[in-house]
Design brief:
- The protein is α/β, with parallel strands linked by helices.
- The protein has a six-stranded mixed β-sheet with strand order 1-9-4-7-8-3.
- The longest helix has 18 residues.
- The two termini are 45 Å apart.
- The relative contact order is 0.11.
């Protein structure tokens, strides 16, 4: 058994195959069995297939996983459960790779993907016409949709006080400008922390309540403390550093 010490094992050879995980949860991918002496079987870890649809992700469906990945030569020939992999481990020279509880992911083909921007999936769509139908082409339409979605999703009942949106385009709005913090604070919007990201993904506008929250020293200190505490739990060697940063205000 070969032990891998990496926390994240990304099998990059998958990038050559265009991520072939598109069948079923039990047998995600299976190629015809060949007589080969170069078989490698990865097991013993959390293997994410990443075959969820955008709709499933938005509904917080549990990530789909596999038990085994079988590589024949330089190609992935099977991704699925252990039972289905039995056809590959009965002949030739076989090498078992124990993931030791670590995570295995398909290779990332698009090197420009903004991984942290996955939050946009949960954001309210405020793209202009014709990207969205109906699109957000006026300031009022923007304000109305933010409130309508907050109500539809039950933010008040769930005690969610942040409204996150993505896709507004200042050049397509009737005001031909970025919404101001005051405009995003009008009426009931003033009861929420509002943060909307520009269609370019490189800037955002925030209302008055959110600005006060984001620049409040106690809020920042609390958020920093939470992050550092999580880091300390993940890596015990960070505990001393985390304690020092928390006590010094993160400086």
């Amino acid at each position: 058994m070969v032990s891998l010490g990496k926390k994240f094992l990304v099998y990059g050879i998958c990038t050559m195959l265009g991520s072939p995980f598109m069948v079923t949860p039990s047998t995600v991918f299976a190629a015809p069995v060949k007589n080969s002496t170069e078989i490698t079987i990865y097991e013993g870890g959390t293997i994410y297939t990443m075959q969820e649809t955008v709709s499933e992700v938005s509904r917080n469906i549990a990530p789909k996983k596999a038990e085994v990945v079988v590589v024949e030569g330089d190609k992935i020939v099977y991704v699925g459960d252990k039972a289905g992999a039995s056809a590959y481990n009965t002949r030739g020279k076989i090498k078992f790779v124990n993931l030791n509880g670590n995570v295995m992911l398909p290779g990332f083909v698009d090197s420009h993907s903004h991984f942290p921007s996955a939050v946009a999936i949960q954001s309210i769509d405020v793209n202009p016409t014709p990207i969205s139908e109906p699109g957000i082409d006026t300031l009022k339409a923007l304000q109305d949709k933010l409130l309508a979605k907050a109500k539809e999703r039950g933010y008040k009942e769930k005690n969610i006080n942040w409204i996150q949106a993505f896709g507004y385009d200042d050049t397509m709005l009737d005001i031909l400008a970025h919404p101001s913090q005051e405009q995003l604070s009008e009426g009931e919007l003033g009861n929420y922390n509002v943060h909307i990201i520009h269609i370019s993904g490189h800037m955002a506008v925030t209302n008055t309540k959110a600005l006060k929250k984001l620049f409040d020293e106690k809020y920042i200190q609390g958020a920093l403390t939470t992050v550092l505490q999580k880091q300390a739990r993940i890596s015990p060697t960070n505990k001393a550093v985390s304690a020092k940063l928390v006590n010094s205000g993160g400086q």
